[in-house]
Amino acid sequence: MPSPYRALFAAPGSKGFSAAGLLGRMPLSMMGIGVVTMVSQLTGRYGLAGALSATIALSAAVAGPQVSRLVDQYGQRRVLRPATLLALAAAALLLVAAHYGWPDWVLFAACVGIGCVPSVGAMIRARWAALYRGTPQLHTAYSFESVVDEICFIFGPIISIGLSTAWFPEAGPLLAACFLAVGVFWLTAQRSTEPAPHPRERHGGGSAMRSPGLQVLVTTFVATGAIFGAVDVVTVAFADEQGHKGAASIVLAVYALGSCVAGAVFGLLHFKGAPEPRWLLGVCAMAVSMIPLLLVGNLPFLAVALFVAGLSIAPTMITTMSLIEEHVPRAQLTEGMTWVSTGLAVGVALGSSVAGWVIDAAGARAAYGVPAVSGAVAVAVGFLGYRRLKRPAPGRGGTVEQHSEREERHVA
Hints:
- The chain is mostly helical.
- 78% of the residues lie in helices and 0% in strands.
- The radius of gyration is 21 Å and the shape is globular.
- The relative contact order is 0.14.
């Protein structure tokens, strides 16, 4: 591991909460696809399987920010454990109901409960922020976490699908639930690195979404999530049309690998100046990288195009986390990070749904227009909201260098 990453773990407790975060985040990439695999195997109803997966995503989009808001107020241990127990109970209900063929409404009710799962990635980033706030190490920490995210998305679906097809249908979601239980309870047992709570009565109420800058970031990432959701669905359909449906998981893993490599390299770099131009450049790069997908003719070319497209994902996500640091009051940091994840989840659900409709109507190659259009929307929102991103929350504004540059711009 390069020295900047090795230096991160000099802080006491950092190795422990990072390892717990890896386990706790695996369900993010395993549960949805695991439910699709399980239900399609048990019932043969792909429509039901997709609807249940979308229900989990949308429920998490609604519940996630509320759970994180409570975490900011009362602390990770007091909130994450009961929220996780609720999600685990709902997952158990889903597995039993699917196995014994209970009515569909029971399956949907269970999926709504699963949506109460906490955003473990936001919890880990909040711990890094508490350790390294205002230092260059925080950029490296966010880069490391983006790499961990991509590792989860490379291996999670492969593990979940593999277990459910080779062992028994419920195996993928069951292992995802086990990862969640171990990861969250291990994380919350580590009290020394837990960020201090910020009770509302001392720091004011209201949602973090009142921040104009956060509104821009979340709206942009709804469109960005639509890119991800559409690419996943269309790639599976394209591989199926090519007669190699099983290769879709490999091609999508290459997509995540591109982001993983870029995130690792990005973490070794240290930038001076404000992050807003880098963020907008990253959004533009994601949009432009969708254009070659419209020209794909075979799976090898698609894999290369998606690897290149993946190179812009992690750097943009890392810069986004830096901007959240500036635009959200410290007492609402976890909630702010979760709102971005919520925007992505909503976008994934929208993108996958629209892409599925276009695939049925015009085929997979034409459906690559969905992520291209989504990228254009993301760029438009980014440009329209750019001025809001130059106005950080009171008392915030990032590093010392960023403060100085902002003051110079204000004077000019």
